Amino acid sequence: MKPFHCLFLCTIFLLLDVSTATDVERRRPLSYQGDPLAVDPGLKIDNPRLRNGYIALQAWKQSMLSDPHNITANWIGQDVCDYTGVTCWPTPEFPHELTVAGIDLNHGDIAGTLPNELGLLYDLSLIHLNSNRFCGTVPQSFVNMKRLHELDLSNNRFAGTFPQVALQLPSLRYLDIRFNEFEGELPRKLFEIDLDAIFVNNNRFSSALPDNIGKSRVSVIVLANNNFRGCVPAGLGEMGETLDELILTNTGISSCFPSEISKLKNLTVLDLSHNQIVGELPRAIGEMNRLELLNVAHNMMSGKIADRICELPNLDNFVYDNNFFSEGSASCPKLPSFADKTNCLKERPNQRSALECQRFLARPVNCEGFKCNHSNPEQPPKVVPCPSPQPPPAQPSPPPPTKPKPSSPPPQPLSPPPPQPSSPPPQPSSPPPQAQPPAPNATTPMCPCQQPSAPPTKP
C-alpha cells in the first residue's frame, strides 16, 4: 500500500474515533432499572408529552424478553406516534400538539414486564394487552394515568394480589384482568367505583364474595373460575337497573339460590353452573322477561321447574342438567336449546338412577330460613353427599360476551379512536409535568414469561 493511502485511511479512522467520542459525550442517558437506554444523540423532542412517551416506550421495549411477531420492531426514533400499536391524539388545549393516548398490543405474544416508566403516559386513555406473556405485577406508577378509561390485561401471566392501582383510576370504566394468576381477596372497593364492566374470571381469588357487590353499577360482571367461598350475596338484587350479564360459573360458592336475583329485570345472561347451590329454582325467575340464557347445571338443586320459566319470551338456552330436579315443565323441550340430563325427571331420558334420586330427595332442602353471613359464612342446609361438580375447561380469554352498556357516556375523543376500543375513551388531560422517569422498583418480581404461549383454544 502506498504511504499516501495509508496516511489517508489513518486520518479517516482518527476522525471517526473523535466523532464517536463526541457523540458519546453528547448523549443524554436515560435508564431502565439502572441499565442505560440508548438515545439518539441528535434527539430533540420539543413536545413534553411525546418526550414522556418516548422515554416510557423505550423503557418498555427494553423490558421485553421476546417479541416473536416483531410488533415493536419499529419502536425506534422520536416519532412515537408511528410506533406499531401506539395511537396519538391532539391535546384539548393545543390542537397541534399530540400525545400518546392509546396502546393496543392485543394478541402479540410478547413476553416481558411492565416498567415503572409507563407511568409517564399521563394522557393514556386505553391500554389493551390481551393475549401476551407479560408477567410480574402492575406498577403503582399507573396511578398517574388519570384519564385511563380501559385497562385490559387479560390472558397474560400477571401475579400477586388484586392490582390495587386499578381502584385509583378515576376515569376507569372497563377492567379486564381475566386469565392471569392474581390471588387473594377480591377488594370491596371494586364494587364501589364507577365501572361499566368487570372481568376477573380465571384467576386464583379465594375470598368470600364481598357483600357490597350489589352496590356496583356495572352492566357485565364475570367472576367465573376462581376459588371463592361462602354464599351468593343476596345484595345482587340491588343491581336490577344496570346489570345485563352475571356469570359465576365454577366459583366455589355454596348456598341456596337467592330469590333476590329475580329482581334483576334487565338481566339477559345468568350463569351459576358448576357450584354447590341447593334448593329450588325460584318461580320468580319466570318474571325476568329479558333473560336469554339461564344456566344452573352441575349444582345440587331440586324440586320443580316452573312452567313460567320455560315460557319466558326471550329465553333461548336453558341448561339445568346434573342436578336433582324431580319435576320438569312441558314447555322446556320447546326451547331452541335446553339440557336436562342427569336429573330425577321420570319422563325424560338419561336421568339419575331411582336409588340415587331416592336417597337425595328423602332429605328435602329447606331454604326458607337460610341467610348469608359474610363474616362467618353459613353453610346451606345439608344434603346427601353427591359427586363434586367438575369445573368446565378453562379457555383463553375471548372477547367480552357483549359490549358493556356505559352507565354514563365518556367524553368524546378529539380525533378518530384507536383500534377497536371496547367503548369510547375520554379526552387527554392537561399538559403533564416535565418528564421525570418514576423511580424503578427495588424488587421487580421475576416471572416465567419467556416460554411460548400454548396455542389458544377456540372459545
UniProtKB/TrEMBL annotation:
Domain spans labelled Leucine-rich repeat-containing N-terminal plant-type: 56-89
Keywords: Cell wall, Cell wall biogenesis/degradation, Glycoprotein, Hydroxylation, Leucine-rich repeat, Membrane, Repeat, Secreted, Signal, Transmembrane, Transmembrane helix
InterPro entries per the UniProt record, alphabetical: Leu-rich_rpt (IPR001611), Leu-rich_rpt_typical-subtyp (IPR003591), LRR_dom_sf (IPR032675), LRR_extensin-like_regulator (IPR051582), LRR_N_plant-typ (IPR013210)
Pfam families, sorted: LRR_8, LRRNT_2
Organism: Salvia divinorum (Maria pastora)
Compositionally biased tracts (Pro residues): 378-440
Segments of this protein annotated with the region Disordered: 378-459
Signal peptide bounds: 1-21
Protein name: Cell wall hydroxyproline-rich glycoprotein
Record-level GO cellular component terms: membrane
Cell location: Membrane; Secreted, Cell wall
Protein's GO biological process: cell wall organization; defense response; response to other organism
